[in-house]
Design goal:
Number of strands: 15
Number of helices: 12
Largest sheet: 7 strands, mixed
Helix content: 25-40%
Amino acid sequence: MKAVTWQGKRDVRVETVPDPVIQEPTDAIVRITSTGLCGSDLHLYEVLTPFMTPGDILGHEPMGIVEEVGAGVPDLAAGDRVVVPFQIACGNCWMCLTGLPTQCETTQCTGEGMGAALFGYTRLYGAVPGAQAEYLRVPQAQFGPIKVPEGPPDDRFVYLSDVLPTAWQAVEYAHVPPGGSVAVLGLGPIGDMACRVAQRRGAEQVFGVDLVPERLQRARERGVETFDLRDFDSEKDLVSALQDRTAGRGPDSVIDAVGTEAHGSAAARLAQNATGHLPRAIGARFAERLSVDRLAALYTAIDLVRRGGTISLSGVYGGKVDPLPLLTMFDKQIRLRMGQANVRTWSDDILPLLTDDDPLGVDSFATHRLPLTEAPHAYEMFQRKEDGAVKVLMEP
């Protein structure tokens, strides 16, 4: 089959690899019909290279048609149309039963000290072959895949794999009070969708912050009050502008949808780039002990949120020695929640919104649709934020 493989920093290629096969009774084989390109994939493209191996198959946002199931998968059959969550979880362990499938005790990557295995996401998370491919082996298929109806195009459902539950959890964790305010830092796919979810769930004021014109325009068109970073001389000026819109206090909640590759943080960017150019074995040891994030977005969130407010982190961070202003966080009584999205915890809440009325705008959410063979171009375009790229879907 054809699959998108990682070969080095900023080097992905479409190659022919062996077709996946059933290995365990709880496996399924899914023929992929649509697969997304995620901002998290760009971390592998750029800063997490020490944890990658040439030939790793990328991708974790798929949907498709079941081709084959193992004997331990009673509720799926060949021909079922499914969305596959990005994490791999059993559904039966203590963590899964408490709503934390990203911490699944069956698939936890205990050797790396990490949570549940993820599709296409470094050796830290199991090095499981990913979903930017023609076919995907789905472990723990008795729990993971979400059956969806025939009829609507893939765009209606494919975001259940990651974007929708990640944005939903970001808003849930933000604890926006009824009629309250929330600022979303970063209007890429997750930030954009988090704005839509926050509006749907009753936030009175939804602010979006970015510096890419096309992303700001998309949010404005859906009623988000946007702030262009390029219009401010400093972070302090941005904070003041948002305080002016919230009775001088700042937003009740702030969602950081940027993560480790924030603009600014020049020293951290230099360290990340240097690590990426080291031999992989040395770079991995360095990253495991001394890695740092670009924390500009998180620092802004800490300064911006009102006293007693909540910061919700959906952007991926991976630093080991990040400095945090704990005095400020303690003094402001900031509540902080974070983590990978627990897809199956939220999917039943989200599915009723994926109707013909399309209140979240999923049918038109993708900005680009490309064949899988153009994956290298898609990665480069998305990483450079060219041609208005916000969400890219690929079709094998």
